[in-house]
Amino acid sequence: MKKQAVIGIICCICMLCAACGNAAEPAPTPKPVEATVGKVVEVTEEIITIQTTEDATHTFERQNAQLKLNGYRLMEGDRVEVQHRNPYEALVITLVEPGEEAKRYRVVDDLLAGMSVEEKVGQLFLVRCPTQGAAQDAADYHLGGYVLFKPNTENQTPAGLKEEIASYQEASRIPMLIAVDEEGGLVNRISQLPQFRSAPFRSPQALFRAGGLELVSSDTQEKAQFLKKLGINVNMAPVCDVSTDSGDYIYARTFGKDAAQTAEYVRTVVEVMDAEGMGSVLKHFPGYGNNRDTHTGVAHDQRPMETFRSSDFLPFSAGFAAGADSVLVSHNVVEAMDPDLPASLSPKVHEILREELEFQGVIMTDDLYMDAIRTEYGIGDAAVLAIQAGNDMICGTDYKEQIPAVVQAVKDGTISEEALDASVLRVLLWKEKLGLLQ
Fold first, then answer.
1. For residues 65 and 93, what is the distance between their CA atoms, to the nearest angstrom?
2. What would you measure as the largest C-alpha separation in the chain, in angstroms?
3. pLDDT at 74
4. pLDDT(140) > 80
5. Is 295 a catalytic residue?
6. For an engineered disulfide with 266, which of 305, 315, 417, 423 has Cβ 3.0 to 4.6 Å away?
7. Does the structure show a pLDDT above 60 at 10?
């Protein structure tokens, strides 16, 4: 019994000594904070991935990180320093240098943040320029831009037109897109007038016959410079429709070749326009084919989807890859995509543009003044439906009725403010690219 008591006491003493020894051990030294510098290649609410060398990237969790961004939001292309104690969790993210693309977005973000609903909605309208009161309307309705037609130019001199356009820009808080249809051939709004040019610009087909794509390229450059001298910053071209049948409604305005050749033509034109700082508009998505004119009624396109994917989409995809700024959607009812709505008012068609063809620029309607739309949907409702479908800009004439309708739709929630802001952002980015916001 006495022996057992002694053993128990010894065990207790050993346990106490062990505990004292453990208590005396120093706390582990925290790992030092490390810093990794690189270019942001991906950023979400949860993570940030930066590229440090050509082949190396590092991904960090960022939910609890302190941000030192000088008031900006974090964007791809930014050069940042990430402080971290382990390879996975960011403690501090510091902006070192904004990326070039990020700088563009920040200019636009700052502008967008200070805009009213009315100003935002006005930016969605690229409208037929009135012959009276155009400068005042530009200011009153905060218009995104004007499209010039013969009544705006036929009685003007080059100097007079340039001065008139300057008055529109002076009246606008946000500079305007000033557009014209100068396709060459049948559609020449300005070069057809002798006071502006000795001869109209030739059609794509005539140019190609005379000098191939080399002549197409030099003609496109000359046209862009001609328009820019007048104060015009957008040419509603090129026509991307594939047509090889001279009996088609759209044939004379097209390149007149198959899809692959038309795609090469479109790529050539867009690259030159982009290099010259001239805004481009690909038209008429998803392709007219052999359909009739929608200025006078609804045209139904019954071709299968495979035809569009293997043919009609190719010139548009080539234009997108070349840097096209915008695409114009026709009023054709394309039954393989949406049997119920004109393409211009169809969310399904716009989803194809955004998701399948991955176009991130400005989507605009064809002229909502066309009979195919006015008689079927009404003036104000058509504009609301167009924005709901996914258009960023509306082409038309009835802006004094359509703008209030869209403003009301935003205020009552029919059109979300998030969708509105996304469209305005794309419009402003286009303007920034053209140098209008500097």
1. 7
2. 127
3. 83
4. yes
5. yes
6. 315
7. no
The yes-or-no answer to whether 34-98 and 103-433 have a common fold is: no
**Could you read off the pLDDT of 416-433 as tens digits, one per residue?**
999 999 999 999 999 999
Helix (H) or strand (E) holding 396: strand 394-396
Active site residue 366: yes
Q: Distances in Å between the alpha carbon of 191 and those of 197, 201, 214, 220, 311?
A: 5, 6, 21, 13, 32
Range name among 79-93, 170-184, 197-211, 397-411 with the lowest pLDDT average: 79-93
Task: Return the SS3 of 383.
Answer: helix
Question: 421 in helix, strand or coil?
Answer: helix
CATH number of the domain at 103-433, out of 3.40.50.10240, 3.20.20.150, 3.40.50.2020, 3.20.20.300?
3.20.20.300
**Rounded CA separation 191/181 (Å):** 10
Q: What is the mean pLDDT of residues 383-389?
A: 98
* Range scoring the smallest mean pLDDT among 20-24, 80-84, 378-382: 20-24
SS (H, E, C) 24-59: HCCCCCCCCCEEEEEEEEEECCCEEEEECCCCCEEE
* 402, 125 contact by CB (below 8 A): yes
- Residue 338 pLDDT greater than 70, yes or no: yes
Q: What are phi and psi of 407, to 5 degrees?
A: -60, -45
Domain boundaries, the chain: 34-98, 103-433
Catalytic residue among 181, 366, 367, 398: 366
Comparing CA positions, the residue from 137, 259, 148 lying closest to residue 193 is 148
Nearest-angstrom CA–CA distance, 203 and 57? 50
Catalytic member of 110, 245, 258, 295: 295
Per the CB < 8 A criterion, the answer to whether 420 and 383 are in contact is: no
pLDDT tens figures, 169-219: 999 999 999 999 999 999 999 999 999 999 999 999 999 999 999 999 999
Q: Give me the numbers of helices (H) and strands (E) for the chain, helices first please.
A: 15, 18
